[in-house]
Amino acid sequence: MGLWAGAAPAQTPAAAGQGVAIPNFWNPRARQERMDTPQTGRTVRFLTDDEFPPLHFPGADGTPTGFSVELARAVCEKLGLTCTVQARRFDTLLDALADKQGDVVAAAIPLTPALRARFLATRPYLRWPGRFVARTDRGLPAPSAAALAGRSVGVVAGSAHAAYRAAFFPKAVARDFTDLAAAEGALRRGEVDYVFADGLNLALWVGGIESARCCALIGGAYLENRYFGEGIGLVTRPDDVALSRALDDALQRVWDDGKYAELYLRFFPVSPF
Question: Which of 82, 193, 228, 242 is the most exposed place for a label (fewest CB within 10 A)?
Answer without folding.
Answer: 82
